[in-house]
Amino acid sequence: MERLKELWQLYRRQCIVLGTFLLLLGAYGIRNTLKSTKPVTNQPVHQQKISRQPTKPRSTRICVDVKGAVSRPGVYYLPKDARVKEAIDAAGGIKAEADMKQVNLAKQLQDQQVVYVPLPGEQLPAGTGAASLEGSGGSNEKININSASKADLQKIDGVGDKKADKILEYRQQHGQFKSVDELKNISGFGEKTVAKMKDQLSV
User: Fold this and answer.
1) Which range among 8-12, 33-37, 121-125, 159-163 shows the weakest confidence by mean pLDDT?
2) Residue 61: which H helix or E strand, with range?
3) What pLDDT is attached to residue 134?
4) Which of 49, 92, 130, 202 could form a disulfide with 142 if both were Cys (CB 3.0 to 4.6 A apart)?
């Protein structure tokens, strides 16, 4: 015991310093341990909500009127990039007597167009255009107001989008025109207007 007392007297200061250091070291270690074991809560992430208005899909189909020497003449709905051949196939194909020399099967169709397949010796009606080899709109070619599409009607001098619609509406309600002068029955087509475009038209 005397020996221990002597050692304590000699190394008391060093023991106190060492003990204090060990206590501080232990406290630091415990603090880090508690910090590492603390549960981590996920912070909510606020995402911006984007409101998208529904857009009206564009039409991917066109409407064409197939007439002449086909099995089932009528109105057909086809893909937007369809060709004359597809319109004729939809109408049941051509009749045996059809004159295909005047028909361009590869020509692309347009909405509200008339596809006409003629018989041998029959002249292709002006304004149909969709099936002709050369296409429509020749400088001296008259437009048949009974079979012309909206696009063909708009090629007439003085006929725009609205007037073309009026012609189509009148044709749908009253049937085919008996004469060009019958256009006078449509609002916006006066006597002078019809007289100016008469040379461009046929029935």
Assistant:
1) 33-37
2) strand 61-68
3) 37
4) 202
Give dist(CA 73, CA 127) in Å, integer: 18
Distances (CA, A) of 167 to 2, 77, 118, 135, 157: 131, 21, 24, 22, 14
Please identify which residue in the block is written with the tokens 């009148």: 170
Per-residue pLDDT of 97-150, as tens digits, reads 988 888 888 888 888 888 999 888 776 665 554 444 333 334 456 788 888 888
Q: What is the dihedral of CA 83, 85, 89, 94, to 10 degrees?
A: 150
Report which of 97, 149, 139 is spatially closest to residue 122, judged by C-alpha positions: 97
Sheet containing strand 113-117, strands side by side: 74-79, 61-68, 113-117
The dihedral over CA atoms of 189, 193, 196, 197, expressed in degrees to the nearest 10, equals -20
Residue 51: left if φ>0, alpha if ψ -120 to 50, beta else—which one? beta
| Helix runs in the chain, H state only | 2-37, 84-90, 150-153, 161-174, 191-197
CA pair distance 107, 84, nearest whole angstrom: 6
Task: Please compute, for residue 105, the number of CA atoms within 13 A of its CA located in the half-sphere on the CB side.
Answer: 10
Please state the rounded mean pLDDT for residues 81-93: 93
CA-to-CA dists, residue 70 to 76, 106, 120, 169, angstroms: 13, 17, 13, 25
